[in-house]
Amino acid sequence: MQRRRVVVAWLLALFAGLNTAAPSSADMSTPYTANFPQEMTVQTTCPPGVPPPPASFCFTGSDHSGQGTSVPPGTAKPATEDFTGFVDLTSGIANACPPNPGSPTRTTGFPDHNQVTIETNAGQLFLTTDGVDCMSTGTDDGVWHAVGGTGMFRRATGNGTVHTQATGGSGTPADPIRSASTYTGQLVLQ
């Protein structure tokens, strides 16, 4: 009888261990997309460690228009975006950008770096982005990396691409840079 209880207890412990060790569907990679069509960006003071203007263009921005989306968790509720970062104007990348209109010559791009918070009804997703700002086209293309979050995004990992298209503005509070960004990629939610 004692031996049977030991065997049953051992089997229960084994199955419990297998059950907790097995990956759940929440540990699987899932496609991720987010769109923010009404970003507003203003120039700000550069943080310590970032060269001040004219070597860098430091900024902060957001889209709280109610038109932003993030999937997951879904499009039923709007998402918001807040970001801060800088463009390094001392490290030009030759021929990284399309030509100016009417010119066959590709133009110089400049590296940019951002910290992004995307807030949804299910939690916040924290991202870092690195891209190339192309002044000739008003575009910025780069990559993002998930670095955790809150709620459903707690311990999120993953990466993808981000594309931003500026539509105007000078970066002052009275005339913020207006843009739209699209994030696509894969997230692993735990």
Write out key terms for the chains shown.
190 residues; mainly beta; AOC barrel-like; disordered N terminus
User: What is the CATH fold-level name?
Assistant: AOC barrel-like
Shape: globular
CATH class: Mainly Beta
Q: CATH architecture, please?
A: Beta Barrel
Largest sheet: 8 strands, antiparallel, barrel
Number of strands: 9
Please give the order of strands in the largest beta sheet.
Answer: 1-2-3-5-6-7-8-9
Query: How many domains, in number, for the residues?
Result: 1
The percent range for helix content is: 10-25%
Report how far the terminal alpha carbons are from each other.
41 Å
Low-confidence stretches: 1-23
Order of helices and strands: HEEEEEEEEE
Radius of gyration from the CA trace? 22 Å
What structural class should be given to the helix and strand makeup? mainly beta
Average pLDDT confidence is 88
Q: DSSP helix count?
A: 1
* Beta-strand residue percentage: over 45%
Verbal overview:
The protein is mainly beta and 190 residues long. It has one domain: AOC barrel-like. It contains one helix and nine strands; from the N terminus they run αβββββββββ. An eight-stranded antiparallel barrel has the order 1-2-3-5-6-7-8-9. Strand 2 (56-71) and strand 3 (74-88) form a beta hairpin. The longest helix is centred in the first third of the chain and has 20 residues, at 2-21.
